[in-house]
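tl;dr need the bound structure. longer version: we got a ligand (uracil) that a collaborator sent over and nobodys looked at where it sits. i said id run it. heres the input, straight from their email, havent touched it
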Amino acid sequence: MRMYDIILKKRGGQPLSPEEIAFFVDGYTKGDIPDYQAAALLMAIYFKGMKDWETAVLTDCMMRSGDTADLSEIPGVKVDKHSTGGVGDKTSLVIGPIVAACGVPVAKMSGRGLGHTGGTIDKLESIPGFRVELSRREFLDTVKRVGLSIIGQSENIAPADKKLYALRDVTATVDSLPLIASSVMSKKLASGADAILLDVKTGSGAFMKTQEDSIALAKAMVAIGQHNGKRMAALVTNMDLPLGYAIGNALEVKEAAETLRGHGPADLTALCLQLASEMLALAGKGDPESCMGLARQAVESGRAFETFRAMAAAQGGDVSVLDDLEKFAKAPCAVQVAAPQEGWICRMQTEQCGIASMLLGAGRKSKGGPIDYSAGIRLYKKTGDFVRAGEPIACLFTSRPGAVPEAKEALLAAICFSKEQPAPEKLVYARIAPEGVTRM
Ligand code: URA
């Protein structure tokens, strides 16, 4: 078999056979197929797509490229959740503790920031001392003792995805349905959970920009999970504006802690409660309404915050920063951004908001590059708010004052003003389950 022929076949729009897909995944993971041929095939897939069964085979090959986590010694139904990535998306930090506080174990492997989107693992590392690399024993013991552990994806979980993702990131082939579906589901299937909730982001800050594409992606991933014997559901949620008001690692952990204490922003709180109740329902804790009640109670009673604190302590984190959020390291440079005109904020180019935060140091400029945990953006106003000219709309935090002008320009360019009050934003557009799609 030759890689050249496989590229040519897909370039011509023909489906690849299971043997050809396996040849590509194995060869690329082992280093036998060079980046330039893999990149050419990814671009051909980007333009020509894949049949559902090809995507399922690709997912399976990627999952089998490494180990599968065995969570069987943790009693109960293990539920995982995965977001396709957004700006200000700190939901895992809030939902994991809520679900665990309701008695459903959460053994979660998460990723680092990617492109304009943030990553849970980078956020957790902004808690001084927090260890995201635990041995298998420590991971399982933490879940058994605390109910929750969040760690980085171990080297050998879907290594094919690790290599392919890094290549997609630099070859403009991220936003392709079969490539996202196989990337997400290969990792999730290898992570060993019994049930998986997918948060498929849609809009200007997401990889999928339209609701129809996002629903199609959600359907494909739910079908793959169900085919592999997992309990599955997906919500298609709004990423046309940042979630909450904080963008950047430590800023987001602080906002997540406030949300767990019951004082979070309305949109973040409502979305986290909805996602948590979906996870509880997947774990068999009851119908959606009673699960929503359980999730609310976990926050109101303080149990969810205590679970987050206990996980941080178990993973070596300095919990004094969670007890007093003022103790988080502060960026040496804080610059207010004023509204250039009066009006309603009617739209935010959310990807640009993520890029502005990255420019301040909250994201990586190159693979494996450093992160400034205290850097990022605190928004004061978002889509739907009225502002007067000169009123502060955001504060930029950074250790690199030289980055401020470009970040400020990017943020201001991302915000559109109107004389008309815009319609309120929806949080959730659709729910996808094996039974079908419910639009909201
Ligand atoms: N998240 C993933 O894990 N993979 C993708 O391809 C996109 C988002």
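gonna send this back to them w/ a short note. Residues 211-227 form the longest helix (17 residues).
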